Fold Crossover junction endodeoxyribonuclease RuvC.
Amino acid sequence: MAQLKRILGIDPGSRKTGFGIVESGRYSPTYVVSGVIRVEKFSGAQRLKNIFESVCQLIDQYQPDVMAVEKVFVYKNPKSAIILGQARGVILCAAAIKNVDIMEYTPTQIKSTIVGKGHASKDQVQYMVQNLLKLTDTPQEDAADALACALCHDRYMSLGIDPELISKGNKF
């Protein structure tokens, strides 16, 4: 029997960071937990500290083998990109300190893998995540995005695609 792996998916945000954990290695991935780290009531460095500590707590509690993180995509606002980049930085730092492998996926990769089209809507992602994981309720948007990221990583692994090639931007 294949060894079970825990995948922690993260949808970074400066106000709300989604997380979702799936277990992989059997016939299909199974849901473990998901939620949202909410830091909108804090300012600046305190937000980053809370995101960092929350991700560290998730890692300590659930012991994931790998973290799949959505890459930053910013269309117009450079200030938003910088703030989001800071949030991603503390998330990646938490994984590095806890010795959890990190894989990164673009939003297009994630949506293509989970929904079948790279520009799928949030509703479509939520619907597919709910169905793929056989959840009774629709996950909240940020949690669904994080679970989709974890499921994307699971899919690439089940196909035997080298994660290092994925992180370097190769298309398959």
